[in-house]
């Protein structure tokens, strides 16, 4: 089989490594991939949002199955375009991807179907939003409606900060059209849990739970990033919490999407907060999380491609999905300065012994050498019987990898281990 994976980060690298385990796979193409992925797939210089070029490539190459991993192409309808030419895909169509593409849609869906989430108001007029903020409870959370490279959310600890966020999103249009509407919502507190799930629109199978570390610096300080590391499973997601989430959140969401004529097939990501009033939805993503995928897939015992094809065919109910016992930890190595400005082009050295544990996110090949090209450069994942062992082993491996300006958090897994 010829497989095509759209995207080019650490998540895609993890997906590709796992798909390669299936003996029926002859070739994997990554569009665009990256310098590290090039060791595991044929990288093709087509951007993840260039849907016409993706469709042309799939047709010319005779692709048998496609995985659309990032949010942008999903929300833009990449799956619809590929299905139109008869290429089966893993990922939701455009109608279903709106669950991530519009926060107004997802909040209204949760309200309509009684799915627990933060209380909220929607605004399309900045003046009305600012008036509302004069008396709103503080802290509060301001969110751009549409996709904003993961940066459209401001958790405002003061009224001024909240007003500033409204102006940036709605008046300065920092995120373009994504900011024509905003959601202002109640501030929730509690540990966060990421639950990725396979679903074919009827059956939903949660994967092992995980915990992201979004802030740039140790002790959850510094600016928000795409994620500086992950662990799985997440100890806050106990069996009891998982049962409650299945009954009140996972199944109701799948059924709600179906009832709305937006059947979701693919990976639905539940960003949850375990509040003192029970678990609530912080966000939905219509895709695998990054860097959650880098700890979840290494613990998947079942064959990933088989599960994905069952999702596409609508027969997930008959497909066993097994995770191994034990734990995983992924430590992200970034370029100093990220998520702000950082240097690029520094040579990366990875010892051969750890290469299979490395998922490359922001690196390019230059004259045959791997050099940094992004803020998050790579992730190092260790699996072990216990989380403590996985954390220790991930750091030991990470410390053998060198590049100039390299930085990472030293406390990935600390909160999970403190429980
Ligand atoms: P998102 O881009 O939706 O993942 O939001 C980014 C981060 O903002 C989340 O991971 C949370 O840590 C935080 N956040 C979002 N919504 C809320 C909320 N209602 N209360 C507290 N924190 C939130
Ligand atoms: N790690 C959070 C995300 O993928 O959105």
Written overview of the protein:
By secondary structure, the protein is of the alpha+beta class. The protein has 4 domains: about 90 residues, Rossmann fold, CATH 3.40.50; about 55 residues, ATP-grasp fold, A domain (Dna Ligase, domain 1), CATH 3.30.1490; about 130 residues, ATP-grasp fold, B domain (D-amino Acid Aminotransferase, Chain A, domain 1); about 90 residues, Glycinamide Ribonucleotide Synthetase, Chain A, domain 4 (Alpha-Beta Complex). It is about 30% helix and about 25% strand. It is built from 13 helices and 23 strands. Helix 7 packs antiparallel against helix 8. The model has no long low-confidence stretch (mean pLDDT about 95). The structure holds adenosine monophosphate and glycine (GLY). Glycine (GLY) binds next to loops.
Write a brief caption for the model.
This protein has 13 helices and 23 strands. By secondary structure, it is an alpha+beta fold. Strands 12, 15, 18, 19, 22 and 23 form a 6-stranded antiparallel sheet that branches.
Topology:
Layout lengths: L1 E6 L2 H10 L7 E6 L9 E2 L7 H11 L3 E4 L2 H6 L1 H7 L4 E2 L3 H8 L1 H11 L6 E4 L2 H10 L4 E5 L8 E4 L2 H13 L10 E5 L5 E8 L4 E3 L4 E2 L2 E3 L3 E4 L4 E4 L6 H21 L6 E10 L2 E8 L7 H4 L7 H10 L13 E9 L22 E3 L2 E4 L2 E4 L3 E9 L2 H12 L7 E2 L6 H4 L2
Parallel strand pairs: 1-2, 1-4, 2-3, 4-5
Antiparallel strand pairs: 6-9, 7-8, 7-9, 10-11, 10-16, 12-15, 13-14, 15-18, 16-17, 18-22, 18-23, 19-22, 20-21
